[in-house]
Amino acid sequence: MKFALFAALLTCLSPLAIHNVQAAGASISLAPGVTLNLGDRDRHGNYWDGGRWREPRWWHERYQYNDHRWWRHEEWRRHKQWERERRWHERERRHHWKEAQRHHDRHDHHHH
To answer: Any signal peptide, and if so, which residues (predicted)?
Structure first.
């Protein structure tokens, strides 16, 4: 876990690194080949939140891991709502397309 300690120290000392955290949100490149990602843990079990190390309880009250990444709870809810709406629109589109096809097929059947 020396990496985590080094990363935390470097982050504190580098204004550019802090700026990158705010810009990228999910990860920060501290040096070539050294990256600190949202949700990484230090040797004490604390989680990196993009700006500082957080205790597990604080972290789990605000974040959850889904779809191969960490999400803030409200962000995950918005993402799931967007998915539900997308699926609903897709079902509606398919339903209307099938209805149009049935109407078209009935219309073609009567004229042949």
So the answer is: 1-23
